Threonine synthase
Amino acid sequence: MSMEYKSTRGGAAVNCVEAIIKGIADDGGLYIPSEIPKLDRSLSDLKTMDYRSLAKYVIGKFFPDFTPEELSACVEGAYDEKFSREEIVPVESIEKANFLELYHGPTLAFKDMALSILPYFISTAMKKLSYSDEVVILTATSGDTGKAALEGFKDVNGTKIIVFYPKSGVSEVQERQMITQEGDNTFVVGIDGNFDDAQNGVKEAFNNESFRSALKASGYELSSANSINIGRLVPQVVYYFYGYMELLRAGKVSEGESINVTVPTGNFGNILAAYYAKSMGLPIDKLVCASNENNVLFDFFQTGEYDKNRELKLTISPSMDILISSNLERLLYEISGKDSAKVSEMMESLTKTGKYTLDEDIKSKLEDFYGSYTDEAETLETIKQVYEKHGYVMDTHTAVAYAAYEKYLKETGDDKEMLIASTASPFKFTRSVAGALGLDTEDKSDFELVYELSEKTGLEIPKSIYKIEEREILHKELCKKAEMKEKIKKLLNVGE
Ligand SMILES: *Cc1c(COP(=O)(O)O)cnc(C)c1O
């Protein structure tokens, strides 16, 4: 059995194996399954499954070109003891708010859920296509994705990974996490610029033909781990199923009863995965899209106009500081009735003018979504309130989601069980969380605050950052932003 993956912009279709290797379609569009697969097992059947079994089932529906044995190896390799909780994704509840804790992986944020399995998909896909080249993953990071990708690709056969980060643009903990990275195939390089410079350097490397052919001649193929790869999206569908089953197991819902979902949103990948779960037949009613002060999506859901012409604000929930939500293109494809000409037109308008407007009939299909946003002061206040009332500690991103949930409840009165995607550990954004809880943060390093936060809340410091300041620094490479290509060649021993 096969399933076609089409480009949102109408270009040639491929199977899932090629879609995973290519990452992005040649016409610049994103790959989407020609049909979103439907559930063909009962909820009571799925209820008996643990995380890994559910992952094999759900991913198998999207990637039928992988054999059950291949898929099983990917899932077992990805979701193992590198997650600190045996259940992989624990669910914690405060009344009808149910926190789907996606942050117990090696880097303490939800990107681990997808980036721990993507490398297995890529190396399996390479084998299936009888690739003899080594795949080099190039990534620019503003902090989170780089570390998650490094952990995921570490020591995966047939791959190397090079991460560029802005030397003065990431937090102390984030930098230390990256430069202490183990693995024989990992490279970490600080550059003398900001995140945009790092990203532009990576894009330039991808688009430079002579550079790519020099690499090719030495047996290297470039690939990317960024969030538009369908191999990152599909594993995210799994945890919405798992969350629902947890509510079913806890007796909080009966079989078939609808729930709502709230997702703190940046690039629109995580919430799109919830939409896919709903489209497959999981009983989800509303999808609450929570933004921070960069509220392009809130305006979009209000007016049907997407307009990125505004100043990017740097907030305390930095992983959501985004003006172009790339994965929204996949939703536009679905709600426009799979009209790739229409999608291309809107994307062209976005490139040229920074905005596009939905036709009325397309706009009416947005009713599954509810947009909301939360400012900085409210975010901090929410962390404080929830801790004082319930003893539950949230990071800044999860707090944006919780605040959206409260607004949704108040405005609509819809009090179905709510699944809240909890995307980062409070220890990952320690300074803001510690401050919100009333700790004195001035003149203290992030490392010190980790201990203080643990002391105050009784939460155990996650193993992956415990005493990280004492670990050996393994990566000291630096380079100028204009010399990234030369640096890559040097690291890979590629001559002129
Ligand atoms: C990436 C990220 C988000 C945003 O997720 P998208 O899929 O880009 O919408 C939210 N919270 C955290 C902690 C993240 O790292």
